Amino acid sequence: MRRYPIVDSLLISMISAGEESGNLPGVLDKIAEVYERQTESQVKLFTTLIEPAMIVIIAIVVGVVVISVVVPMFQQYSLML
Questions:
Q1: Closest by Cα among 21, 1, 3 to 11
Q2: Is 45 left (phi over 0), alpha (psi -120 to 50) or beta?
Q3: Distance (Å, whole) CA 71 – CA 43
Q4: Disulfide: which of 10, 27, 57, 79 matches 18 by Cβ 3.0-4.6 Å?
Q5: Is residue 2 part of a domain?
């Protein structure tokens, strides 16, 4: 496993310790918990960052739609006067 750069050195050390102690299933459970927490925090960070961006994008779209409807209405109104 040391040949593959995708495998974390901490993961290799923990697996080695689990093999030596005879508690590999317990160590693998701990590794899974660590990676789950890490993934959850990354997803939470992503959603925290993407939410304001989506609000701005939606506001721009709504603004463009409103302007594209209201401006022609005012132009028609000014022609009637």
A1: 1
A2: alpha
A3: 41
A4: 27
A5: no
Crossing angle of the two packed helices 9-21 and 24-80, in degrees rounded to 10: 150
pLDDT confidence of residue 8: 81
pLDDT in tens, the chain (81 residues): 667 677 788 888 889 999 999 999 999 999 999 999 999 999 999 999 999 999 999 999 999 999 999 999 888 888 887
C-beta of residue 15 within 8 angstroms of C-beta of residue 27: yes
Q: 24 is in which domain, residue-wise?
A: 9-80
Q: Is residue 3 part of a domain?
A: no
- pLDDT on residue 43: 97
